[in-house]
């Protein structure tokens, strides 16, 4: 990884394995991981304890994203690379990443969109639910969220030269190898 400061963004439709890959990558590179689901769910749980009916889930998750991007920028401003585990399916996420990079020109933004078949996504979501039913909803409940169509459409429409699309139907070892190769390629291109 050299001495470069990276902002690695892992996105994709639910069930593509982005959280698994992000965790492995954080361990491998020994850099912090900021996960939107963890932040959103934590804020939602805290707010529910204080005002159960007053705060919609969408507000908690927006607060989670705001916190995630603020922490990412804080880490980066001190020279620490960071991985963000977000879906990359909302424009505000791209705007936040671009704004951070704009304020920190030495930071290398490297976004990855993991892609796999819908059946693979559903199977992974079902396995996740079976592994921890208290934390994760069943796949059908998850897949029936109305906003997912918009997320899926934006993920398909993203057309940026810095985006690396990775086939996440492949074994996780192959996905990790593709990410490392993209980082090495970016390093070579910047020298």
UniProtKB/TrEMBL annotation:
Pfam families linked: AAA_33 (PF13671)
InterPro entries (UniProt xref): P-loop_NTPase (IPR027417)
Cited Gene3D superfamilies: P-loop containing nucleotide triphosphate hydrolases (3.40.50.300)
Entry-linked PANTHER family: OS07G0160300 PROTEIN (PTHR37807)
Protein name as catalogued: AAA domain-containing protein
Lineage: Bacteria, Bacillati, Actinomycetota, Actinomycetes, Propionibacteriales
